[in-house]
Amino acid sequence: MNKIKKIFENHTREKITALLFLLIIFGMFIGTALNARTVGASFINTYRASVPTGAPYLERIKGAISAAESAVNEGAFQRQKYIELYGLSQRAMGKNVITDYNYGSLYKTTYGQITFAGVERYVDDSCGAVYDLVNNLISKDIDFLYIQLPFKVPPARYNGDKQLPANVKDHANDNADKFVAALNAASVKTYDLRDDFWQSDMTQNELFFDTDHHWSIQGAFYATGLIADYLNENYDMQIPESLYTKENFSFKTYENSYIGSMGRRVGRIYGGIDDFTLITPNFATDYTVRHIEGEEPKEFSGTFAEAVLENEYITDPDPTTNRYAVYHGDYRELHFINHLAQGDKKILIIKDSFSLPVYSFLSLGIKEVRAIDMRLFDRNVAEYAAEYDPDLVILMYNADSFAYPMFDFHLGE
Q1: Across the chain, what does the average pLDDT equal?
Q2: Do 208 and 218 meet the contact criterion of CB atoms below 8 Å apart?
Q3: pLDDT tens per residue, range 208-240
Q4: How far are the Cα atoms of 253, 326, 394 from residue 312, in angstroms, in the given order?
Q5: Half-sphere exposure in the Cβ direction for 206 (13 Å, CA)
Q6: Residue 50, CB half-sphere, CA atoms under 13 Å: how many?
Q7: Alpha helix (H) residue ranges in 51-121
């Protein structure tokens, strides 16, 4: 007994440390409890975005657990200050790898950008799902094109492997290579944008945000021009030639105004702050835009700036605001009707988040563009396409989108 008493008497520093640690944990718990409303809203938004309507019961339970974990982590009391302190310590030690509860690890590239490495995926099921969709569309006399968008880390043939820390392997492009090759072998029409994209004279830091996994608006704008040229050459899409030249658009840069999803996880001290460039047409535009999220669609009319842009993502002074979503963010279904389009073409885009600025820019040259997101859309895609009767259905995914529910097209429903 005397020995135990002596241990406690001789370990005052350890006891104080333990007490302070417990007080910090208790303070964070109380702070998070007081922030319960925000945590609850975060849970609902995350759950709705990640768990599709009608998902299997077990999938809903897993989604709810994951959404709850994310909401509590994101809503932790003074979370951002702790992140900044952690980022400061990692920067002081010159670390290029940061442990992250969501991604496992985040990496700082040789260009000073924050990213994650794509995991190796089994793509055969995704290929089969696309093949089934194509066959359904063929039976309805509807054409199909798969467009392979890039990922933040370029393929090894463009020295992407040299951007990551030693012994870190990114599988996103390998997955995309296998996927595109399998579609080509099955005679599915594809356009692998990556080779044209990475041969741009723009720099890595111009093509992608430093603090976000998405491409920059300049990168998306450049990609839209490449896609428009391909659609004109192969599908006579009637997009005005040279529409996507810089002379036709205004570029307004908001300096040090945006911290993307990766930057919010490592802190601004470690990851920095991005400039954000808003690109808008400087010619006359007239739109009707509908987005469908719940039961009632919302409709917007006016110019590109009035109907297409969601300006609160720009006017909010908080740099952690998702400014990328200004080009009409992730909704179940979007309709862009361009009343001044020169042609009469219609397209349907099955999209992921990389497509946000692209479908908005692409709508400037096409009569009607519709975009659906399989994370939220729960109808039979082939039947929906037959009702809409587009000139072309485009599946447009980045090189890290090979996972459920991106290829669940509800064909049996």
Answers
A1: 87
A2: no
A3: 999 999 999 999 999 999 999 999 999 999 999
A4: 16, 8, 29
A5: 10
A6: 18
A7: 57-74, 79-92
